[in-house]
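[recover] target loaded
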């Protein structure tokens, strides 16, 4: 039986997973579409996730431990952003 990670480790694992799966730092995701027909602006969605990632990395370095609900909400945000990127054709299912 595997041991569940503590809250700090869980958030760090989630951040690593987000960095691996979402194109956070690829320039193509930080520009608006050429025809302006975005379904939820990918640029704004990625900026939102990047802001949260930077906040939590900094907070954890300062010794702030996230609460379970904060981890859940961050995970939900990332899931919804991923869904938006799939709708815009930036990511595939």
């Amino acid at each position: 039986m595997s041991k569940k990670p503590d809250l700090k480790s869980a958030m760090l694992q989630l951040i690593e997973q987000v960095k691996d799966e979402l194109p956070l730092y690829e320039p193509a995701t930080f520009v608006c579409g050429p025809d302006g027909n975005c379904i939820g602006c990918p640029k704004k969605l990625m900026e939102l996730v990047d802001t949260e990632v930077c906040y939590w990395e900094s907070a954890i370095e300062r010794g702030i431990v996230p609460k379970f609900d904060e981890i859940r909400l961050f995970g939900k945000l990332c899931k919804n952003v991923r869904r938006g990127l799939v709708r815009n054709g930036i990511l595939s299912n």
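[recover] notes: Residues 38-93 form one domain.
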